[in-house]
Fold these 2 entries.
Entry 1:
Amino acid sequence: MKSIEEIKPLLESPKKVVITMHQKPDADAMGSSLAMYHYLIQKGHDVTVISPTNFPDFLKWMPAAELVLDFESSNDKAMAALEGIDLLFCLDFNALYRTKNMAPFLEKMDCIKILIDHHLEPQPNFDYGVSDTSASSTAQLVYETIYKLGDDKLINLDIAACIYAGTVTDTGSFRFASTSARVHRMVADLMDRGLKHEIIHQNIYDNFLENRLRFLGHSLLNRMEVFYEYNTAMLAIPYTDLKRFDLMTGDTEGLVNFLLSIQGIKLAALIIDRNVEVKLSFRSKGDFDVNTFARKYFDGGGHFNASGGRSSDSLEKTVERFLKAIEENEEQLQ
Ligand code: 5GP
Ligand code: MN
């Protein structure tokens, strides 16, 4: 993979571009993609952002979010946008399968593929890009890419808002180990450019419906289990709960982090029956590597302290497998 700076000549004449992200995008996937969008349109390119699936309502405030095509519900438009593209930007994921139903199409496309990402162990099917696991977020890498391309004067308030949103969420509001001085310098620069951060926090964190908070209370009271011998806490959510509380995409985001607030807990797991498959989210504190854990047991991956996976077994069977997995990792969990 050639370095990201080397795309500079490719951007000198108008191109047909698609930007895509991982399925069920979070604020970093959407924020980095839309920041890239606002940058590339200023450079005169024909740009479409495609999400492999729908995305949470709490991201709809992002500038140009209304232009993002959902590959599932607007398939015809998305396929037309992919037709004959010159450049494909892949943001906030590094293995094509993470684009779900889009993956078979992306694999076949012979356009130039550009990766901007911070997850561990990238697949080798990209022509240009940056894969920096020390970066707090993909949004931060988009910001740095714009600088490297000599275009920092193009960082406007739309770009700043999108970048800030991706960074604040992926750093757990600037608390995770990935929150380097580099992150704070970037935010200072965005604020110098006029970024209003308070409204972004409100848009992301204070914008849910009552049922989501009720669901949170119910889950913590009735669905949480703590295994002190393994310093592990788990939330297993049956599909009936998702129905009962009428949850929407994104409503379970952040839930797993509550478990890590229990004294001594090193590993937190959120296991949700999404009906078609069971989705797992892992978070850890300190030296327990949940990227390897998710890869080994649940066909997933991610970062050292935050990862995800899936299972085609029932919720009960998946929980059983999880408990067996933590038993096997007892030593590392001490
Ligand atoms: P989340 O738990 O928020 O869904 O994901 C946590 C982190 O793990 C994110 O960086 C996400 O991109 C990554 N991740 C989640 N699910 C998967 C998966 O199935 N495979 C891989 N490789 N990464 C995942
Ligand atoms: Mn990310």
Note: Residues 28, 92, 118, 137-138, 170 surround manganese (II) ion (ligand 2) (CB under 6 Å).
Entry 2:
Amino acid sequence: MNIHEFQGKKLFAQYNIPVPQGKAVYSVDEAEQYAKEIHSNVVVVKAQIHAGGRGKAGGVKLAREKKDVARFAKELLGKTLVTHQTGPEGRCVRKILLEEGVDIGKELYLSILIDRTYSRPVFITSLEGGMEIEEVAERTPEKVIKEYIDPSVGFQPFNGRNMAFRLGLEPEIAKQFIAMAGNLYKLLTQKGASLIEINPLVITKDKRLIALDAKMSFDDNALFRNEDIKALRDLDEEEELEIEASKHGLNYVKLNGNIGCMVNGAGLAMATMDVVKLAGSEPANFLDVGGGASKETVKHAFQILLADKNVKGVFVNIFGGIVRCERIAGGIIDAAKEVEIRVPLVVRLEGTNAKEGLEMLKGSGLNLQVASDIWEGAQKVVKLVNGK
Ligand code: ADP
Ligand code: MG
């Protein structure tokens, strides 16, 4: 789960990580009112959407005088902002963050995330922060510093000193940096975050270290431990179909292709997506109906697939183990009673009760093609969709 910058900054403040004075507002009136309370002359108006790249896309405005705040608020609120992270459809800006304008001396980069390969948290930091960090990482990887933390002992001050030394920070800044890194580690582990990214982390002209941006992601499996974090979920920022899927306990991620995939097991789902690509098309989604899928779950899954307008063909690829194939067949047949299957359907069933499942599908009068393995299935569905 992702949260907004303003929510991340509230958490930062709770953990003694310095942030600019600021508040999220939802209307032009509210913006005008709050601007008066900001103690700097310059006020920054920032679109709050779950995507970065706002600066370059015009989603961060600098009001040199308080009277400009209302104009910028009007410009941003209700606007669809397209950044390199939103995809071409963009995101509607429903709230903005008003913030004190900070006198920037230097922009650094600092993040902490879980490195799955090494099974431990890692800090990533660089003197070259700001809006071009991806390019820095690509062109001059030596400017990106990593510090792994042993989770059995947790963050130690020497971890902070290592980073500060390698960055070449002067003592006054280094002290603040080390404290901040320790607080970030606490925040990550106590709140179940999988990523905290501060870009830019700035050194102000008067030598203070302040987090100017805040991006946080949380491990969904840890949300049960932190009700306060769970409450930060913003459904406006999530795909409608993904919300629907989560209600039915389905692991569904919408993608941009045109082949809807219904699969059981995350590994098989990944493999199916790969094979669809190999056959010459793109998957429209990742969908794992899970091991214990009931007929009901399969029905919902199938309806969610068909609700995606981009889906031009569906590939059902099931390996019956715990989930029995006739349940899958039953779910598809039930779904077809409620929504019209307007696209070609290719089904591959293997494993427990595969024969019974296929018999049911054939007997149902549904227009579908059967495949005997994953490669044949992918090729068939791609051919039906591409018409070649
Ligand atoms: P994004 O990462 O989505 O582009 P940021 O929050 O990083 O958005 O803002 C983009 C840029 O705007 C920053 O790199 C910084 O230069 C400037 N900026 C953001 N917030 C402030 C602020 N409070 N004061 C001064 N400059 C700011
Ligand atoms: Mg940023």
Note: The first helix runs from residue 5 to 14.
